Amino acid sequence: MQRPNFPASCVLILLSTICLAQEARTQQAPLSKTQLASQEMTHLQTQADANDSEAQLALGTAYEDGNGVPQSDKEAVKWYRAAAEQGNAKAQNRLGLMFRSGLGVDQDKTEAVNWYRKAARQKNATAMFNLGTAYYNGDGIGIDDVMAYAWFFLAADFGSQSATEAVKRVKEEPKDFEVEPFEKIGDMYQEGVDLPQSSSDAIKWYRKAAENGPPTVQMKLASLLLHGQARAQNYAEAHGLCEKAEKRMYSPGAYCLGVLYQQGLGVSRDLPQAARCFNEAANMGHAAAMLRLGEMYWNGDGVKQDKTSAYEFVSLASTSNLPEAKQEKELLEKEMTPKELEKGKAKAVEWARDHHPLVLRGKPQRVN
Predict the structure, then answer these.
(1) What phi and psi values does residue 286 have, to the nearest 5 degrees?
(2) Which of 29, 47, 201, 326 has the smallest number of CB atoms closer than 10 Å to its CB?
(3) What confidence score (pLDDT) does residue 169 get?
(4) Superfamily of segment(s) 1-173
(5) Confidence (pTM)
């Protein structure tokens, strides 16, 4: 993905926001809105000593600002860390900023990113934006525009005004510029690594990506719609997505349509149509479609029963990484006459020759 051509003012915003946040104490009013009295500081210290993470965060802020106590970045880091290690997202973000700037601690941009990430996983919008900025600038992590804008979009979605400004510039670019970040957000929600696992949130972002995206993301969305929680199932929408992918000659799309027609999901059950779709996917090298087509030939479902054609496609599927295809091939060999088996093997060799150098694709997005 190419970076947009931001005007100088916008580039300045993107490159300097974290530094401005770090230097707010010296350039602007303190982070605390009001000056803390001695009695308030005593109460805050008591709560912090009792492992109250909010009090620890507030005490760290007081030390960072020099509000009610002598200014001390080291003490600020001490209390931010205490709160951060208890899972306080705001403290995790503030600790990340201290590591980023080397205030009260040896500068360590990689460690800063680690703390941003912990806070971002808790859906802290400021940390999400800071993490996006780190990716954009290669600040403690390698430059990655897709990840940068994924975090900007997320931060904006959770209320970050700085991220909203960055996103405005993206929206002036061609619509397909958004596709990769949207898909990445969907991946993060579905995988549950950088964000809490949530199929419903993954569906939300995959939908955004699928509007102008490649068939790969359309199939990710279709798979979740077919196999998510009951309230998320939408066979009609999944059918439309699979159909779009199939029209773009993407074999998992044709395979998906075959499954839908075979099982009557979102469409009337139509075995001949299912066989046609499986055949189309098989011709594009889709191993699972070959297996399904072979089964249909064996049972005479939607096609004229033909044991040799059944063996042809099951045998071809067995050369992939589908263990069930290998098992089924062995079963068919026990049920066939030597003459049928010889003919089936010959048909498989002929198919492979005609479709050379087609490479069999393994297991697809799960749609069955």
Answers:
(1) -85, 110
(2) 29
(3) 77
(4) Tetratricopeptide repeat domain (1.25.40.10)
(5) 0.82
